[in-house]
Amino acid sequence: MIKGGIFFNIVSFNVIIDTACKINNLGLSLKLLKRMTMMLENFVWSNSITYNCIINGFCNNEKLLLVDKMHHKMVKATKEPRAKYLEI
């Protein structure tokens, strides 16, 4: 889509990442997160919603070690996690 002159924003990335997590395609969600960080020159940054979608996907798939790793990445990126994930 970028070749066609259409650029993604944070909302479109978050929708696609959330959908990928809901269909258990966690690999795609992580690839998209990485792609977002590569697009910094286009002013697309991940936010707490991005990380919370991925953390929720990991929780739903019982990948608790990955939840912890993603939480640390989120805190390192100074994003605030939602309270329900702190209870894990």
Automatic annotation (TrEMBL):
Transmembrane segments: none
Positions annotated as PPR repeat: 47-81
One Pfam family, short name: PPR
Alphabetic keyword roster: Repeat
Domain of life: Eukaryota
InterPro entries: PPR_rpt (IPR002885), TPR-like_helical_dom_sf (IPR011990)
Signal peptide limits: none
Similarity annotation: Belongs to the PPR family. P subfamily.
Protein name: Pentatricopeptide repeat-containing protein
Source organism: Arachis hypogaea
